[in-house]
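request received
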Amino acid sequence: MRMKVFVIAALAFVSLVSVIDGSEHQAQLSEFVNDALFSSVSSKQLSQPQPLMVPITVINGAAAKGAVCLDGTSPAYHFHPGSGSGANSWLIHLEGGGWCNTIRNCVFRKTTRRGSFKFMEKTLPFTGILSNKPEENPDFFNWNRVKIRYCDGASFAGDSQNEANQLQFRGQKIWLAAIEELMSKGMQKANQALLSGCSAGGLASIIHCDEFGSMFPKSTKVKCLSDAGFFLDAVDVSGGHTLRNMFGGVVTLQEVQKNLPKSCLNQLDPTSCFFPQNLIQHVQTPLFLLNAAYDAWQVQESLAPHSADPSGSWNDCKANHARCNSSQIQFFQDFRNQLLNDVKDFSKSSPTGLFINSCFAHCQSERQDTWFADDSPLINDMPVAIAVGDWFFDRKTIKAIDCAYPCDTTCHNLVFK
Ligand SMILES: *[C@@H]1O[C@H](CO)[C@@H](O)[C@H](O)[C@H]1NC(C)=O
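response:
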């Protein structure tokens, strides 16, 4: 039985399409939300000023370039202009929201905001790294800030089509059309730029990091931030490879290999080259990995999905880490150890940055409560916003890796009803 998760607060929560390929299942949406553990946070946020609401912009001429959403509609972004000292600085944030890996769930996705302009919210709140308030976003608040909508289902990296089912897989073209339009709106004169993204968008920010860097002159400071984008090629609770199987479908269906680094494809199969653990060593542009060690999406959808645990013996634990028994916690510790091992060499390279906190969270840069707030998550007394800012501006070396669960008392863990 799949868990029903209810949206309890009108915060900028993250939604993820869970990709289910069972014959009796439809692809469905699960919303990740704060639970009552954070009622104090939520009520405090409600008393704070309303977030900036930013209207959507259709990408002009994108359709003529073949850059379209799954259903053929135009892609779009939300843009808030920079000002003052940030007038020539650009933050490009790639929206996330799972993937589609089969004809069936890509066809379903056409009827959602993740596959069609028709269903996208026409305004979005800009919070966390996108906030325009210095007290919420000390380093990037006055930059030009852009959120590019995700409507291709393959982390902005596919390029193919399926005519029989009227599906367009144009993630790569959407990415290029968006960047081209932003360049013409002033980004070409940027003196600094940061490509970020969360979840499937965090994976996209790794995949497109060097391409982004190559679009600017050498004099421009360009870096990339991947938030909750470090999806591990891990073994699930039944010994299977749930995520690898799903990624394999995404890569094959959408022909993602066309846009993966040749240096990786020379060594590994295309599906492996869609996993960050095999990509990060090929990224030349400075990259920061922000990730919860026990990423809540991966726990739910990659490690202990229904298909790997048909009896539901992990349901309580995956909904609420406090209900896990010692062997389940050990399983998560092994997962964290694999993550730490995969980033070991990466962390030795000087321009990289890391913030791996021992939380059950997912996407900590877009939400105000996890990015920068009185009680936001910390490693060594450092909040996420300060870590990312110090790294971007070369104020400090940031290689922050938390001690293992349960030592961190600053987490905003996601708990599901
Ligand atoms: C923990 O829970 C799992 C799933 O219900 C069970 O298989 C395992 O035996 C339990 N381990 C301990 C140490 O209780």
